[in-house]
Specification:
The complex is a heterodimer of chains A (122) and B (939). Chain A has 122 residues and is an alpha/beta fold. Helix content of chain A is 41%, strand content 19%. Chain A has a 5-stranded parallel β-sheet, sandwiched between helices. In chain A, helix 1 (14-26) links the parallel strand 1 (6-10) and strand 2 (30-34). In chain A, helix 2 packs parallel to helix 3. Chain A is globular. In chain B, 46% of the residues lie in helices and 22% in strands. Chain B is built from 26 helices and 28 strands. Chain B is elongated and about 150 Å long. The chains are: A alpha/beta (122), B alpha+beta (939). The A-B interface holds A 13-16, 18-20, 22-23, 26, 58-62, 64, 66, 88-90, 107-111 and B 202-203, 206-207, 209-219, 221-222, 225-226, 243-244, 247, 251, 254, 258, 744, 747-748, 750-751, 799, 881-885.
Chain lengths: 122, 939
């Protein structure tokens, strides 16, 4: 599978993370789940091809979504990867705008809508 | 020692002035005792003032062995004072013998130092029928009490009683202020918990409730996508439906929290079409309520600039509400866009709302009351109203048997903000009282008028009366024919010599004649104070023809002047000694001319520093810039007086809230001579007033918070229970069929558990704040409980890569609440796993004498100084919200549970890093708790 169909899911909630990975795999994507922003950076800086999209939660331990996005934008190799912000925050739209995210989805997630967004980018 | 006759008055004035300066009971007592000592050589004395309970309380005593027995004037310790009070008149004892004869018990007792009191007097202080206080003086030598002394004391008693009453009022005010402060302090704790809750809810509740909810729904969506089996789609759609219901509740809670935080409803207005918004909302509702009939009618232009998401909420809330309470009938939605500036939305159904409920309809968290406790947070209408108001509109409701119920939303075509603001209530009663005082003062001055009565007569060059006017009879009492030809010395007092009259005539020969004032005699020998003007009258050749004399009786005026002088002196003394008011005079330009004690205390300037300065000094910069002082002076000059309440500046630059009365002073010709300015520092009063308002707001905030927690936890439980039930049933059905879907559902099940725990925690807090946290003690082995919880948490610890190292010395037998003990261990361990991930965690349970000690130690980052203080508080947290969710209730509950068991809980940084939590519990039931199984109610 090439990076064109790879989706990185950054989400600390185990159930949500595993469900999303499973759902995207069922839908034909190569989905990888990590627990927080730090792990996501590690993964992105690793040898594997970069994903076509990052699904990013905001509230996470160790490194939250906002810090991750800032670090990502600072790294020219990673800055171009589009991000979908998924959050339980009331102001998810505003946050997403501040982070120049490609799209945003509120929690609880509607899987069909997530799939639509992913299909636009991958 | 007897008071010299005639000197009573000045001393009384001085005493009165001194009394006016006393602000506390102690100061008042000092004045009385010093007077007694200085004027009457009293060697001992006591002063009592009326207390709140209606009795008397000792303020101060001198020269007496005061003990607790003296606190009130009892017949045993102060029989003379007790009797004087009972009789309502002073008592006088000219010798110790007189005391001993009247009160043999006192003479026999050892209460008084032998021989030191040789005479005494006791004076009750009455204001009408009301006892304001009492004092007694003792004298080292036997002495008589002259009539003028007794009179002096009798006259002194009145200002004393007035001062006593004033002091009592002052002290009651101070007590009230202290009490208010105390209550205020106690509320601060509750209030900060409320503030923390609000802040927490805004960010975290969303996360903590929505994440597990999201997990459940994601899993359920996944399961339903996989399964085309008919029998499974129904329960799965029910799960999703419950989830959506909970999701809506969480959104409402967040809106509510935001409004409570004062942030209002955020709007993103854009061009929208009400008809389109309504249609969408109706479609969604019809999906959720199969069979529901909603008619949409519209007139005019439905377009405008609004936040369409928010308006969609209004439609959903109102139509949903109408469907729920519509008695099964149709719901009609009307949009009226015929007016150019504003639109109306009407949502009507056939149901009726009882009129007594209508005023409460828009109050938050009243859902339970309105619907007899069935469902809903009671936030929908509240939020609807807030959204309408945020747009610059409002919501009204009308309900009747025939017409049904109609909610009418008015909206401006272009959304605007809603204004707000409150004003401080005016201090009317205070002002009125002061106004009356000023008016009486002015009346008093008007009383002092001159008397205009003249006697005019002519004297020949030798000083003999040659002609007269009728005034002479009125003034001198002589008939006209009795004086003609007699020398003018006739009018002088009998002891005056004729030479004095001649001398006056000689002096009058000067150019302007002679003007003098002096005593003159009437026919009956009585004297009057006269103004006498004598002018020489010359003939055309310049020869002296005689004198014209004009005599005015100034006795009345002189008396009045004396009275005025006395009154002015009293007034000056009073003004000077007044501390509560800054009272000073200004010249017509507004420069300070006098400066009293109150002005010094209020504004901080000494007289020398401020006299001659302009009043604009007392105003803040902004008032000076727009010439507020000048405007006030002009207004006072024009209207006579002006009142103002506002900020003023002290010498040190600090501000105070002042109540100011500025009165123009004019001379008899109407010429402005200056201004009198009275300023009162109302900062304390204002602070008190603000505190009262804050107090009420705090109480309201706390009441809302408690209601909020209660409603939230109960209301969220309902859909969650349904959701969990469905998942459980599905799991059973799936077991054999599809392991993958079963795994999805198991995840949903676990998330449901997490949600349930969170809601339980909220419920616990709500019970704690409402004092309903009860223990169910049963005999148990604590080591076993700790061991069980430990095993249960091993999987979580493993996920976090934490090794659990346990040292449990068991069995530890005692009587505890099992569920609560499990909660303690779970909370401490979960906390350690959350913060100490990747490192070992040590748990120990050991018995130390009468108590058992549970320690949980992690090797995480420890606790920083800043958060140490609030870590056990409700909604306190040890880490930023962005990284760790949670309500911040865990440690709070641990401590409350430990306390309820008579124990303690603490958290500290362990030597060598990490955090160490310690819970100590008594092994035996402590005296906090009665018999086994007793429920202990927390306060």
């Amino acid at each position: 599978m090439t990076g064109a169909h790879r989706v990185l899911i950054v989400e600390d909630d185990e159930t949500i993370r595993e469900s999303l990975v499973e759902f995207l795999e069922d839908s034909g994507y190569d989905a990888v789940g990590v627990v927080h922003g730090g792990e996501a950076l590690e993964k992105l800086q690793g040898p594997e091809p970069p994903p076509c999209l990052i699904v990013l939660d905001l509230m996470m331990p160790v490194m939250d979504g906002v810090s991750f996005r800032r670090r990502q934008l600072e790294d020219p190799r990673l800055a171009a990867i589009p991000v979908v912000v998924v959050s339980a925050y009331q102001e998810v739209a505003r946050k997403a705008h501040e982070l120049s995210a490609a799209a945003h989805l509120p929690k609880p997630l509607k899987l069909t809508e997530l799939l639509k967004v992913i299909q636009q980018h991958c | 020692m007897s008071l010299p006759a005639g000197s009573c008055l000045p001393d009384l004035q001085e005493a009165t002035a001194a009394l006016a300066g006393a602000l506390t009971g102690g100061e008042l007592a000092d004045v009385v005792l010093s007077m007694g000592q200085r004027l009457f050589a009293a060697t001992a004395g006591v002063v009592y003032l009326a207390d709140e309970a209606g009795g008397l309380t000792l303020q101060k005593g001198r020269g007496l062995p005061l003990s607790a027995d003296w606190r009130a004037p009892s017949p045993a310790t102060m029989p003379a004072l007790a009797e004087a009070i009972a009789r309502g008149e002073p008592l006088w004892f000219e010798s110790w013998l007189a005391v001993a004869e009247r009160y043999p018990a006192l003479a026999a007792s050892e209460g008084l130092p032998a021989g030191q009191i040789q005479a005494a007097m006791a004076m009750p202080l009455f204001l009408g029928p009301r006892l304001a206080g009492a004092f007694a003086l003792g004298f080292g030598r036997p002495r008589g009490f002259a009539a003028d002394e007794r009179r002096w004391f009798a006259r002194f008693a009145h200002p004393c009683a007035l001062a006593a009453e004033r002091v009592a009022r002052h002290e009651a005010e101070r007590r009230a202020a202290r009490q208010a402060e105390e209550t205020h302090r106690r509320l601060v704790d509750e209030l900060s918990a409320t503030v923390r809750l609000n802040e927490t809810l805004a960010g975290v509740l969303a996360h903590d409730l929505r994440n597990p909810l999201s997990a459940i729904m994601t899993a359920a969506q996944l399961a339903s996508r996989r399964n085309r089996v008919e029998e499974l789609t129904k329960p799965l759609s029910r799960i999703l439906h419950s989830g959506e219901r909970m999701s809506r509740m969480v959104s409402q809670l967040l809106d509510f929290t935001r409004i409570r935080l004062g942030e209002g409803v955020p709007l993103e207005p854009r061009p929208s079409d009400l008809r389109v918004i309504a249609r969408h909302a109706i479609d969604e509702l019809e999906l959720a309520h199969p069979g529901a009939v909603v008619q949409l009618e519209h007139r005019g232009d439905p377009g405008g600039t609004w936040d369409d998401d928010r308006l969609s909420q209004i439609f959903s809330n109102l139509i949903g509400n109408a469907l729920q309470h519509g008695a099964g009938g149709a719901v009609t939605v009307r949009i009226d866009g015929t007016a150019s500036q504003a639109l109306r939305i009407e949502v009507q159904n056939a149901g009726t709302i009882p009129s007594e409920l209508i005023p409460k309809l828009f109050e938050p968290l009243t859902g339970g009351e309105r619907r007899g406790g069935r469902g809903g947070l009671g936030l929908g209408l509240f939020i609807t109203q807030q959204i309408a108001r945020a747009h610059g509109g409002d919501v009204l409701v009308e309900s009747g048997e025939v017409t049904g119920t109609t909610f009418t939303v008015s909206l401006p075509r272009i959304a605007s903000g809603a204004p707000g603001g409150t004003a401080l209530p005016a201090q009317r009663p205070l002002r009125e009282a002061r106004e009356r005082a000023w008016q009486s003062e002015q009346r008093m001055r008007l009383l002092i008028e001159t008397i205009r009565d003249y006697a005019i007569f002519m004297l020949d060059p030798q000083g003999r009366v040659s002609s007269w006017n009728p005034g002479i009879e009125r003034i001198h009492g002589f008939a006209a024919d009795e004086v003609v030809g007699r020398h003018c010395s006739l009018f002088y007092p009998p002891d005056a010599e004729k030479a004095r009259a001649d001398e006056a005539l000689t002096l009058a020969l000067g150019e302007n004649g002679l003007e003098e004032e002096g005593w003159r005699a009437r026919k009956d020998g009585s004297l009057f104070w006269a103004s006498v003007v004598t002018r020489p009258i010359r003939g055309t050749e310049g020869g002296l023809m005689g004198y014209a004399q004009v005599v005015r009786d100034l006795t009345e005026r002189r008396r009045a002047q004396q009275r005025l002088q006395e009154s002015e002196q009293r007034f000056r003394l009073l003004v000077e000694s007044v501390r509560d008011y800054a009272i000073f005079m200004l010249d017509p330009e507004g420069r300070v001319q006098t400066w009293n004690l109150g002005a010094q205390l209020t504004k901080g300037y000494l007289p020398a520093e401020i006299i001659g300065e302009h009043i604009s000094r007392f105003y803040p910069d902004e008032d000076r810039k727009n010439d507020k002082p000048g405007r006030l002076l002009a207004q006072a000059a024009e209207q006579g007086r002006v009142e103002d309440e506002g900020w003023r500046v002290r010498k040190d630059g600090s501000r105070f809230w002042a109540d100011v009365v500025l009165t123009a002073l004019r001379d008899p010709s109407g010429q402005l001579t200056g201004f009198a300015k009275v300023t009162r520092d109302l900062t304390d009063r204002r602070t008190l007033e603000n505190q009262r308002v804050e107090l009420a707001q705090a109480q309201e905030a706390i009441r809302l918070r408690d209601g909020f927690l209660h409603v939230v936890s109960h209301e969220l439980k309902t859909p969650l229970a349904g959701l969990q039930l469905q998942i459980e049933a599905l799991l059973k059905a799936m077991e054999v069929k599809d392991t993958k879907t079963a795994a999805n559902l198991e995840r949903a099940w676990r998330s449901g558990d997490r949600l349930a725990e969170l809601i339980e925690a909220l419920l616990d807090v709500s019970q704690l704040t409402n004092g309903r946290f009860a223990l169910q003690r049963t005999p148990l082995d604590l080591a076993e409980v700790v061991g069980e919880v430990l095993e249960g948490l091993r999987p979580n610890a493993a996920t976090a890569k934490c090794e659990l190292v346990a040292r449990l010395e068991g069995p530890v037998s005692g009587s505890w609440d099992r569920v609560r003990m499990e909660q303690v261990v779970t909370n401490l361990l979960s906390n350690a796993i959350k913060y100490g991930a990747g490192k070992p965690i040590e748990i120990s349970l050991v018995t130390h004498g009468p108590e058992v000690v549970l320690e949980v130690r992690d090797q995480g980052p420890g606790i920083s100084e800043e958060v140490m203080g609030q870590i056990f508080q409700r909604f306190g947290r040890g880490a930023p919200i962005a990284n760790y969710g949670g309500l911040g209730l865990g440690l709070y509950l641990v401590r409350e549970i430990a306390r309820a068991h008579g124990g303690t809980a603490s958290l500290e940084n362990a030597p060598g890093g990490g955090a160490l939590a310690t819970v100590r519990l008594p092994l035996a039931l402590t005296d906090l708790v009665g018999a086994e199984g007793t429920r202990r109610e927390l306060q």
